[in-house]
Amino acid sequence: MRPTRSSRRAAVAATVATAALLTATACGSGGGGKTADPAAPGFTFASGTATPGMVPDGAGPAMPGMTSAAGTPATGAPAPAGPDAVTIDNFAFGPGSLTVAAGTTVTWTNKDEEPHTVVANDGSFRSPTLGTGATYTFTFAKPGSFAYVCSIHPFMHATVVVTP
Q: Are 75 and 60 spatial neighbours (Cβ–Cβ below 8 Å)?
């Protein structure tokens, strides 16, 4: 037997009401005398921390594969500056074109509040997603012109020119 239009509407209305009630319960504020249930399950990530990418003492990001210019894990230290540094700011790479010698390590630092990536058009390098203050380094071993983009915001593009 096929349900009638009114019974289908009633079922949809009940589903919507249930979803709204569950959402309101889950999103309720800490006000109103309610306290968090200490027995409620929480989230612990593989790093052993409650927030992915953060070190247990809260010192800063520690995403896998990200290192500082010195080759040590990123810790939220000030971004490196200098002739081999690229900043990501206001949805742009700066400088738009960087010329370095072969063997040079270039460091990109995200100064935007939005996440970005650094991805070579030829696939030769690819950063993880960089949050605010995060860095990515890549050593250019061979000469050439390496165009790259932010894969999240493909209108962002720049080039590293590597000389012999």
A: yes
Between CA 77 and CA 133 the distance in angstroms is: 8
Please give the Cα distance from 133 to 135 (Å, whole number): 7
Tokens 């709204």 sit on residue: 20
- For every one of its 164 residues, what pLDDT tens digit does the chain have, with 9 covering 90 and above? 555 556 656 655 555 555 554 444 444 444 444 444 455 444 444 434 344 444 344 444 444 444 434 343 343 444 556 789 999 999 999 999 999 999 999 999 999 999 999 999 999 999 999 999 999 999 999 999 999 999 999 999 999 999 99
Record the pTM. 0.53
